[in-house]
Amino acid sequence: MAFTSSGGQTRSSLAEINITPMVDVVLVLLVIFMITAPVLQSGIEVAVPKTRTVKEITEQRMVLTIDRDSQVFLGDQPVNIHELAQKLHQQGVDPEHQVIYLRADERVPFGAFATVMDAVKQAGITNISIVTQPLDTKGISGANPVQ
Questions:
Q1: How many CA atoms lie within 13 A of 129 on its CB side?
Q2: Which end of the chain is more exposed for a tag (fewer CB within 10 A), N or C?
Q3: Are the CB atoms for 120 and 83 separated by under 8 Å?
């Protein structure tokens, strides 16, 4: 767009984009995502037992959780214990080669733990790993930390 100055010269205007409103919107969206992200990542709270030998989970596997109220979850979804064997049996996956991780709260009664283990075995899955936390060896006398 051209315009004529008071001296009779024709000049063109410099079109500049004002990015201040865009920056404001981006910052507001950033704050909204920072506030809502922890809420969306809420999982099932389980205080798993602590042991000296812990193998780190490196692959994405099926996780079965028993919380302190003895409720059973497959992933993040609650599951009825009587339907667990059917839900665990995935089509196209050989049950003998399927790996399942079992997270159980340390206050879960052994009877509930044994019932879940039985349901997993009924699904034909024999490779079961029990999830634990590493033991804090600083307070234990005579214990060598694993390096």
A1: 18
A2: C
A3: no
Q: Please report whether residue 41 resides in a domain.
A: no
Check which CATH number belongs to the domain holding 61 and give it. Answer: 3.30.420.270
Could you tell me the pTM of the whole model?
0.54
124: left (phi over 0), alpha (psi -120 to 50) or beta: left
Looking at the DSSP assignment, which residues form a beta bridge with residue 130?
102
Q: Is position 80 within any domain?
A: yes
Best-predicted range by mean pLDDT (30-44, 77-91, 108-122, 126-140): 108-122
Q: Domain for residue 91, yes or no?
A: yes
Task: Report the DSSP pairing between strands 10-12 and 2-4.
Answer: antiparallel
CA 61 to chain centre: 12
Q: Which domain holds residue 83?
A: 50-134
